[in-house]
Fold these 4 entries.
Entry 1:
Amino acid sequence: MIALRRFSVPLPLVLIFAMALGLAAMLRAQIEGGERGVPPIDSSSSFEVSGIEVDTYAANADAARLAGWREAQRKGWDALWGRMHGGEKGPSLSDSALDGIVAGVVVEDEQIGPRRYIARLGILFDRARAGAILGNSGSLLRSAPMLLIPVEWSGGVPQAFETRTEWQKAWARFRTGNSPVDYVRPTGTGPDSLILTPSQTWRPGRNWWRVLIDGYGAADVLIPQVEIERQWPGGPVIGRFTAFHGPDRQPIGGFVLRVDSADGLPKLMDEGVKRMDALFTRALQAGLLTPDPSLIVEPAVPEDEADDLEAMPEDTAAIESPTLAGSSVFNVQYDTPDVTSVSAGEAALRSIPGVSAANTGSLALGGVSVMRVTYGGDLAGLAAALQARGWQVQQGPNTLRIRRGAAPAAAPSGAAAAK
């Protein structure tokens, strides 16, 4: 006779297993559930001139509207040329020539009558075609790539990407083509709601910040924050805006805006984004948006820990730091004061043995650009190859920051040596 033994699971293990399943379900719901994520407008391929007022007459409504759009194109071109050339008056272009460089018309507000057209318009100029006429469009100051985490306080609760907020929508609508700040705007989908949280903006530790910065291809972080105060349901809304920079939340500036009703909240946010971008732009011009070096370079290892590393057996060290076979892709940050420095930097990286590709993924003329380099080896090998060619190299997680080394002092001439 075979004795049957009943298999029993301890109650604590059952509870732990149930809690693990519940936690997994909650995380899945947090990532996939609810309305979340606003894809930002891709405005990198156009220049924008907004707020153009037109008032035209014609034989009918369609002709009046066409005349208004033509007038807006001419005014927009004059404004764009003056912005690129310090207020100088630019060359006059025919309507047909303007049609060839205008990428679109943004209707901000319009009133159409039987023979009259009154509107406030925005004109989008194709960056490639208009840039060929503007000439110096590529010499504008640009910042390093900045990860943007918009935080909205409403009802005493902070939100970033956990839900779809009006503040996030306004930043997604904002056209960044004219801004000298290189914004990296997450969409808010997938893991963004889990890792880009309001609490993350208060963490001073650099380890997790380095992972985020590297994962999003940025060099630093910007935190535009707004506190929404509603006077009463449906009544006036007050927005208190504050701009922060870096993982230490260095304050840049702030302002207060107000609308008469809750229906004007989107307009309040749009105006807040424009003024916030102006704050960041002034900070960039004043040299306050320099990337934090601690986000690129890991801190030095204390001497006692360094001694422990030196005493580690060779086989253990090989397990802890394996050498990957094949090619790897690394980020290389380098200075790009002008257009020629971009091609020169890429050519310098491609000339290194083992580098199969070197292409600039994030361009910041006048600042620090990021190049994606495919190298048949590890990051330390690439750093050593660059140092051998005279580059100053700072190594971070999957990232190198390179600068041209200082030129050696000239040797004294024979006559000078004799003296």
Entry 2:
Amino acid sequence: MGSFKGFDVKEEEKRLYKEYKEKLAKLKKIEKEEQSVGQVFTKGLLPLYALYILSLGATNGNDIAHKIGEKTHGLWIPSTGGIYPLLKKMEKSGHIIGTWNDEIRKTQKVYSLTEGGIIELENKKILLKGNISEALEVFKIIYKDLYG
């Protein structure tokens, strides 16, 4: 390597590597910010709203996502990739029970709330009401400041 007519290859490699690392750090920061906004929904509201949807009647994971999409006029449609792990966790905690619609083929699991799930829904509603209300106010303020 070395120099080529006043051009130091090693220095250029260092400069390009530093530039690459800075751009990568910016991209990771943007990705992290996007994920944190999404986590407000998936980690906070999804468990609560899934319990609410199940309080309306037994259904499967795809229908839960679909019903959330309907109720939010398509503004929030959780992925089934987020719904099914949540349902599995809620089933293990005893808040819901899943039964196969066909015990032999096991094509679709239908979930319903247990007594513990009803209590959990009511507790979460009470516990998160203030947080949801505050978050809504913060979003309104930020929206007004940014967009008038």
Entry 3:
Amino acid sequence: MSATTRLTTLPNGFRIVTEHMPGLQSASAGVWVMAGGRHEAPEQNGIAHFLEHMAFKGTKRRTALQIAEEIEDVGGYINAYTSREMTAYYARVLQDDVALALDVIGDIVLNPVFGKADIETERHVILQEIGQALDTPDDIIFDWLQEVCYPDQSFGRTILGPAEKVSAFKAKDLKAFVAENYGPEQMILAAAGGVDHDAIVRQAEGIFGGLKAQKQRMFEPAKFIGTERREIKDLEQVHFAMAFDAPGYRHADVYTAQLYSMAMGGGMSSRLFQKIREERGLCYSIFAQSGAYEDAGQITIYAGTSAAEVSDLMGLCVDELKRAADDMSEPEVARARAQIKAGMLMGLESPSSRAERIARLLAIYGRVPGIDEAVARIDAVTLADVRRYAGELCSASAAMALYGPVSAAPALEALRERLAS
């Protein structure tokens, strides 16, 4: 743990982690709850996200307007998000207003009212959000891809939830999810920037110290199975997304996968961008990325192209993946390594990124590894490692989602055979 990063655990298991950034007059602080989409039962799909929305609709002490006004009166910013593994409530404020931000965040996390009229209003907002996602092809296709990677699993279900389930949630359902998933051991208070660790701990003790410890609820392990989904619609482009089973955060190959995906499709110099966009002109947008979670991960490729050219594009993508096992070069790996390290180090200049980082690392590892440790692991990945990983990917489980005029697109099985041949 770096010299500026401090961790305190309260007797009930609630953790406070801070990182002081000398010279900064602002701070980012929030509560990260280890309760996301994967912690939902099938009938609860979408409730973690619904709960996040409801936190801002009013508490026992504040109306929805007062929540917004108290933060914005001091020039601050407050927001939240729901992911597959976490729900986060956070604020960015000046250093003198950290105590105010924590008081508001503690209030919305612990004391939401769940008024009937507010539930109906926010239900309508979320249904509009679902409708907007369905109208955004390069957004919804990743939800579909997740579903076909992990069919019939909590890890594969959409964060927003289906409209029919969102339409049925009641206050008792929200309260039940909180009771199951918002225990002190499932929460982390993280703050970075112009922060005083001891002052934050004292305040956290008053807000969260009285919560009763409870046993962490187990979630369903993720198992990458991989199927195909194609939705035919009269669009200008075919949206193509393909995913491969990849390492989770704790796997030794997690940084190898990141370097590989960066070299393949992480920028304008990457293989897929150069071959498919620059040389062949088959698309405007194409990229590859690596996503890692506690016990799972994916290498994902996305591109949008015309119906007439989708078959060529998909075939070229597979050919480039296959070729990387034999001729990935040292300069490509070095460039990918530099891009990943630069992105990570540049992010450290932001208090929001630092607070997010220390919260996530503490949730994953139970400690906050120093930056030097991450850099060393990235530097330790060799060209041979990346080539080996590229070869293993050729036989890894795969999934695919297509949206648009997709009748000419090859099937997933045909792509897998081409990759393995």
Entry 4:
Amino acid sequence: MQLVDTHVHINFDSFQGDLDAVALRWRQAGVAWLVHSCVEPSEFSQIQSLANRFSELSFAVGLHPLDAEKWTEHSAKEILALAQQDRRIVAIGEMGLDFYKASNREQQEVVFKAQLEIASQLDLPVIIHCRDAVAPMVELMQAFWQHQGSVQGVMHCWGGNPEETQLFLDLGLYISFSGTVTFKNARSIQASAQMVPSDRILVETDCPFLAPVPKRGERRNEPAYVRHVAEKVAQLRQTSLETLALQTTQNACRLFNLPLLDQGLPIFSAENASLT
């Protein structure tokens, strides 16, 4: 059984003391691949070094919405150039809108749209952060889709209800669930995890944040714990962990063009598996 953790931040300081042990644990847990997200372009060389160190790591480059004030007239060219630099770059992001912690809506929307344009130009998927911003994000993306064409991508660490989830499914996006889906009172997230089609669902840790039950009390989340996320999602969907792992791994390979399929991963067909 193989799993893909589609959103990690193992470049953060909390991992620097024992990263080899962390890697051993994710391999023992069946995590065959990781997609490393990027908060801001200045992280690029650090993340690239991690990809040199761990062959099962692909990564993204982009600017997080809570850092939108760092955007300059040169940022788009910088992200574009970096994204063309390394074949292990599989996405632009993380990017998006966050009005929970910041109120600079206009600036965030400018930065979000600019990164959509980069992804469209390079034919790369986007890793999207959305918090307290569903309606404006859907409006912006619908307009972009209409005038410039659709972009593939994932709503990462998804926390929306089924109605909100459907809006992004209608845009053709994947939905990724993190440790929040395991939380006792996360009923709307759990309902969303039950209704996403099997060919559009992903799992992640968003480590070092949001450790899942039964690790929730720990200060640091880590990639090995994506197995707990997958177990919960499988339970909610009334399917086996093995089936859920196969579905999400193949989806990650399709979205991010990961090489696991070339290594003999069985092909999942939505027609012969439960969508519940």
